[in-house]
């Protein structure tokens, strides 16, 4: 890439003493988007981004490829209620998935179409939950990327809206009582009822009557508890048992309470103050089911008696699916076997690839392995709550868009196609190689390496992608961006780093808090492994990540600028000293640590990318992509690091900030995905030595 003239940013002589640490923050003024200096600087960055990205020779080719691949469809796992099946589907050409209902006679109707609600495409369907009878539907919408969900209820038969909007329902689960007249949900307190700056916190669990004024809802739980708590709610199909769970921010631990609504309705402690995660519910057999990593970091499924608190102690739990030696239990569905006995369809992940197996509901052990599952990922399993011999399995892999398979008790080892997602164009043939890098401390790190089938065995432009945090597992998944890169002759690698859940909770905790550097070491080792194995070279290697993955690649470019030629850093966390002050940052301090603690501040300063920039360093070509309506990770992080890198770098490679408006951290319209992904891939193509992939052909590059 040609050398560009970066916009000037005023550098403040601002140094603070924080717990004995001298911490410089020369670009703090960029935290304020309304500051005239920020406005002028941002306008200059917009102009630079337009010039650099608009001149990329591979952009048109990538946009054309992505237009076909992004418009592959997607089908969600159905939820069965009262003989009806509810599911989402997006067809090629649709900007958003629609929510449908399949009637018992097989007819299908659309219930919620975000584009019908808002033809501009900025409204998204965030969540939905049908009543036990299947005659009512609660659903949540947000607009402009703010993820501020508004709750509605509609009549499934007529489509008539019965309730809503109820605001302040971001991340709210819904649990229906039988009859469909009442539900439990989660709502934040009104802004005037909480301290200034805490408007995103202070959730409560409420009991709501459909159609009633939410101001009169009954408070169920949450007073006097941690203001950052997220809550879960579940009600048994018979309406007797209520389960409420709470976690402080994203901490990997749950408090769980159980109430007998046919009794006094009081919530009683099932698990409180324990450093473990437990999901609990009462199923149709009347037993309390517990899926937990308490003492079993790879998780197990057990049962107890909801009416007998003495059985709630973990030593009294009866295992149904015990902890596996090599697999991590991630999901279950209760089904009826061929003889009518209760069975469990269980999902385990082994080295980031999902497996299905069938277990006896009485705890007598495994009955079958579902050998008909191809290598890939299970996005969920579901079965009707009243039971039956059929279950539905969400499936995807590197070349298969999200689809649905069906399991039948009569053939327990097999799966059949139920609903395949359509594909707009031809999906390239992909070869997937699984390999392991060795991290600095000797830990093996698993990688998926994708390349075009039959591509030459020579070093090629390569994108290394990772996340490494919050218990997120990177299992095989359809990615239009990865396929477009591979179709053009490149290599795409996905690293399963510590901080994720690929090997259970111990693997997660090995990459959080004071151990966060392990994640960056794992990622660097993955890059070095790709080079050592001949897949690529440093001059042809790029890294990409978003959100926590943006922190990952931010740390990589500041710690190992020699390792890579290009970086895409999307919606990133980068100033780890002040991250808690903005967006949802305060809810993540269990993952990273808090700057309010002297010891934990030391952890954060040890890798904070913004504070690791060094004058005169040759930094790789870097593209920051941010979203102005992002209410999770504030765009200020990218602004501050972009300014610091632009001032410090001694290389000719550009540092570019691309921003979008009216879009947030999560779901977006498909057409906007194409534009973003094309810019990102074209930027990395230029950084790794490709001027026009369409002309150069697969596996060949043209130097800049």
UniProtKB/TrEMBL annotation:
Pfam families named in the record: Peptidase_S9 (PF00326), Peptidase_S9_N (PF02897)
Catalytic activity: Hydrolysis of Pro-|-Xaa >> Ala-|-Xaa in oligopeptides
InterPro entries named among the record's database cross-references: AB_hydrolase_fold (IPR029058), Pept_S9_AS (IPR002471), Pept_S9A_N (IPR023302), Peptidase_S9_cat (IPR001375), Peptidase_S9A (IPR002470), Prolyl_oligopep/macrocyclase (IPR051167)
Domain (Peptidase S9A N-terminal): residue spans on this chain: 13-412
Any one Gene Ontology cellular component term annotated for this protein: cytosol
Alphabetic keyword roster: Hydrolase, Protease, Serine protease
Family: Belongs to the peptidase S9A family.
Protein name per its UniProtKB record: prolyl oligopeptidase
Species: Geodermatophilus tzadiensis
């Amino acid at each position: 890439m040609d050398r560009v003239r970066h916009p000037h940013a005023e550098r403040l002589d601002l140094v603070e003493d924080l717990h004995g640490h001298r911490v410089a923050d020369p670009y703090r003024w960029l935290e304020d988007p309304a500051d005239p200096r920020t406005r002028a600087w941002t306008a200059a960055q917009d102009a630079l981004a337009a010039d650099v990205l608009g001149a990329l020779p591979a952009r048109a080719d990538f946009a054309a490829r992505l237009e076909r691949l992004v418009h592959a469809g997607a089908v969600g796992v159905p939820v069965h209620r009262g003989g009806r099946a509810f599911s989402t589907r997006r067809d090629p050409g649709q900007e958003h998935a629609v929510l449908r209902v399949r009637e018992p006679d097989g007819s299908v109707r659309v219930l919620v179409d975000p584009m019908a609600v808002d033809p501009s495409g900025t409204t998204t369907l965030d969540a939905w939950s049908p009543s036990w009878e299947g005659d009512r539907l609660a659903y949540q919408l947000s607009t402009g990327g703010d993820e501020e969900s508004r709750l509605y209820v509609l009549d499934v038969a007529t489509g008539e809206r019965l309730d809503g909007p109820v605001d302040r329902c971001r991340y709210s689960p819904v649990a229906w009582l039988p009859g469909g007249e009442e539900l439990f949900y989660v709502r934040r307190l009104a802004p005037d009822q909480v301290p200034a700056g805490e408007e995103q916190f202070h959730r409560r669990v409420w009991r709501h009557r459909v159609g009633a004024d939410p101001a009169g809802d009954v408070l169920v739980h949450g007073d006097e508890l941690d203001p950052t708590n997220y809550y879960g709610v579940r009600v048994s199909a018979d309406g007797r048992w209520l389960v409420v769970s709470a976690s402080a921010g994203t901490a990997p631990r749950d408090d769980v309470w159980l109430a007998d609504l046919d009794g006094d309705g009081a919530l009683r402690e099932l698990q409180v103050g324990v450093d473990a995660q437990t999901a609990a519910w009462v199923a149709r057999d009347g037993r309390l089911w517990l899926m937990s990593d308490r003492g079993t970091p790879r998780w197990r499924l057990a049962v107890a008696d909801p009416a007998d608190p003495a059985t709630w102690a973990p030593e009294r739990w009866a295992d149904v699916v015990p902890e596996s030696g090599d697999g991590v239990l991630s999901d279950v569905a209760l089904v009826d076997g061929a003889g009518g006995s209760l069975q469990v369809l269980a999902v385990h992940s082994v080295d980031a690839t999902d497996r299905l197996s069938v277990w006896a509901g009485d705890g007598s052990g495994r009955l079958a392995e579902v050998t008909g599952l191809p290598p890939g990922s299970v996005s969920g399993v579901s079965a009707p709550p009243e039971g039956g011999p059929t279950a539905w399995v969400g499936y995807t892999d590197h070349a298969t868009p999200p689809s649905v398979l069906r399991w039948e008790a009569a053939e327990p080892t097999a799966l059949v196609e139920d609903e395949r997602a359509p594909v707009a164009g031809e999906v390239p043939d992909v070869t997937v190689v699984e390999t392991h890098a060795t991290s600095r401390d000797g830990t093996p790190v698993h990688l998926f390496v994708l390349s075009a089938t039959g591509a030459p065995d020579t070093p090629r432009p390569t994108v290394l992608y990772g996340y490494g945090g919050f218990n997120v597992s990177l299992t095989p998944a359809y990615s239009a961006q990865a396929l477009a890169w591979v179709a053009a002759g490149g290599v795409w690698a996905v690293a399963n780093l510590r901080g994720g859940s690929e090997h259970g909770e111990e693997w997660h905790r090995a990459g959080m808090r004071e151990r966060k550097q392990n994640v960056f070491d794992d990622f660097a080792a993955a890059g070095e492994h790709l080079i050592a194995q001949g897949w690529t070279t440093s001059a042809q290697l790029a890294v990409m990540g978003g959100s926590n993955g943006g922190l990952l690649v931010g740390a990589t470019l500041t710690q190992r600028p020699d390792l890579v030629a290009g970086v895409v850093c999307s919606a990133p966390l980068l100033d780890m000293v002040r991250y808690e002050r903005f967006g949802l940052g305060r809810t993540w301090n269990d993952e990273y640590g808090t700057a309010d603690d002297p010891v934990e501040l030391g952890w954060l300063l040890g890798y904070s990318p913004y504070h690791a920039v060094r004058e005169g360093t040759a930094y790789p070509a870097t593209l920051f992509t941010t979203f102005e309506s992002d209410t999770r990770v504030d765009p200020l992080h990218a602004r501050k690091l972009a300014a610091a890198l632009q001032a410090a770098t001694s290389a000719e490679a550009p540092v570019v900030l691309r921003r979008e408006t009216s879009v947030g951290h999560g779901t977006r319209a498909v057409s906007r995905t194409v534009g973003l992904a094309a810019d990102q891939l074209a930027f990395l193509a230029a950084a790794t030595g490709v001027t026009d992939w369409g002309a150069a052909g697969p596996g060949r590059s043209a130097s800049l």
